[in-house]
Task: structure prediction
Amino acid sequence: MRTAVSVITAAAILSSMASSLVRAQSHTYIIQTLQEAQWGPAPPLLPAGAQIAVLAGDPSKSAPYAVRLKFPANYVIPAHSHPTDENVVVVSGSITFGMGDKLAKSAAGNKTLAVGGFTVAAANMNHYAFTGAQETTIVLYGVGPVEFKYVNPADDPRNAKSSTK
Result:
C-alpha cells in the first residue's frame, strides 16, 4: 500500500514539474521598437478613434498583458472602472486623469501626466481620462481580462453601437 501511495505521489509531483516546465518554455522573448508596433483599432469598449498595439499577452484573458494605446487629440474616456488594477505609463503626449463618477475636466483633483508619468487605478475605482491638443500614447499593463464598466451606461460605446442598428 505504501508503495502505491509513493508512486502516486511521485507521479503527481513529476506531472506538476512537467506542467511548470511547459509553461516556462511557452514564454516568448519579445523585443520591439516603437516603429515595429502593429497598430489597429482599439476594441469597442473604448470610444472610437483609439488605436491599440498588443505588446505581450492577451488582454481578454485572465493573464498578464501589456498594450500600447494611442489616443487622438481631444480624446475623452468617460468615467468607468475595471475589475482589475490598471497600470499606465505615458510614452508620448500627455493625458489627464481624474477620479469620480462623472468626467469633470476642471476638477481640482485631476492630474495631467506627461511623458514618463505613471498611474495605477485600483480595481473598481471610478476614474476618467482625456487628452489635450496632441496625440498621446500610453502603455497599459496588468492582469486581465481587461473590461470597462462605465458609470453611466449611456457613455458605453458598446451601447451606442447597438442603439444605432
